[in-house]
Amino acid sequence: MITEIEKILAEINTFTAGSDDELEAFRIKYLSRKGKIPSLFERFKDVLPQDRKVIGQSLNNLKTQAQEKYNLLKSEISEKTIAKKGEYTDLTKPTGFQDIGARHPISVVRRMILEIFARIGYNVAEGPEIVDDWHNFSALNFPEDHPARDMQDTFFVSNPLTDTDKPILLRTHTSTVQVKMMESAKPPIRIVAPGRVFRNEAISARAHCIFHQVEGLYIDHNVSFADLKQTLYYFATEFFGDDTQVRFRPSYFPFTEPSAEMDILCKMCNEEGCRICKYSGWVEILGCGMVDPNVLKLCGIDSKEYTGLAFGMGIERIAMLKYQIDDLRLFFENDLRFLKLFEGAV
Ligand code: PHE
Question: What fold is seen in the domain 105-342?
Answer without folding.
Answer: BirA Bifunctional Protein; domain 2 (3.30.930)
